[in-house]
Amino acid sequence: MAGLGIGLIGTGYMGKCHALAWNAVASVFGDVERPRLVSLGEVNAELARKKADEFGFAQSTADWREVVANPDVDVVSVTTPNQFHAEMAIAALEAGKHVWCEKPMATSFADAERMLAAARASGKVTVMGYNYIQNPLIRHIAALIRSGAIGNVTHVRVEMDEDYMADPAEAFYWKSEARSGYGALDDFAVHPLSLLSVLVGLPTEVMTDMAKPYADRPAREGGRRAVENHDIANVLMHMEGGVSGVLLANRSAWGRKGRIMVQVYGSEGSILYDQERMNEFQLYDRKGEPANHGFRTVMTSGNHPIYGKFIPAPGHGLGFNDLKIIECREMLSAISGQPAHVIDFERGLEIERAVHAMARSHFERRWMTVA
Length: 371
Description:
Layout: E1 5-9, H1 13-29, E2 36-41, H2 45-55, E3 59-61, H3 64-69, E4 75-78, H4 85-94, E5 98-101, H5 109-122, E6 126-128, H6 136-147, E7 153-161, H7 184-187, H8 190-199, E8 203-211, E9 216-218, E10 224-226, E11 232-239, E12 244-250, E13 259-266, E14 269-274, E15 280-285, E16 296-299, H9 307-310, H10 320-335, H11 345-364, E17 368-369
Parallel strand pairs: 1-2, 1-4, 2-3, 4-5, 5-6, 7-12
Antiparallel strand pairs: 7-13, 8-11, 8-17, 9-10, 11-12, 13-14, 14-15, 15-16
């Protein structure tokens, strides 16, 4: 039986991640048909052909609509800049394709709602690119929290920091355009929100302040161009059940590369996790002799399901692209009608709802209910 036909739109950072996942999923898991890499779309024919050869796709095109219309394509990966997600995902769904779309859903809430409506009407599977939730340790931490290992959760704190926008001399590009979204809040902070969604739930009320560390940047055509969105976001949150929370996001933080710090505090202990050290977390519980209390490090191993599909021995560690392969496998599970650990457009819209409430809070300078 032939595997599903795959179409890929976009071949940048995340496009390559999707291509690697589609290429590797059958080899890693051994229980799915090998996908057929059918068609790849890029902005021009030369680049499309080059990337198709590199990634192993049979066909290439400079028109993404040809990928969507191809009758041999069953699943479309959308990995283009944020402002194109809605149009492409909706077109794919209306053409009867399953959709694997990178985050965020869209740059406006109305477009995200349109994406969900198209998904519901099509009956097809949708998956958002929130691969950090696929980490075996994140699944284990969620299970610990549900089991009451740290008691009742009282406070959560999440921080995401990188430095790809830290250099004031870096030329203006699309991530600083208003049409790409609010900036750090939706291009970036959606990742820690995805982790919150599987660990403790999303916020019910928010108070936000956003900042621009640099008012303008050098323009590629000469002169300078005003930065149109915000590279820093600070959010106070009220969660369900009276839990308090803080979310901090900064994409101009020198020295930070892929940091998502998650701190969960409970009545009986605490859990600390840092994405830059994604194969370990720290667990504290107050059981036993006080003289022996302290954080202990838990390292990923075969005791954490899925890790063993990649590496038989503990201590060797998974990476970013491995999480993408897991996400790909979960999508195939969903398509085959099995339970899947994914954020689909239904759950994705709830993350978008939180993001847009946070933005409104900043612009209106008040607490905002996540309606």
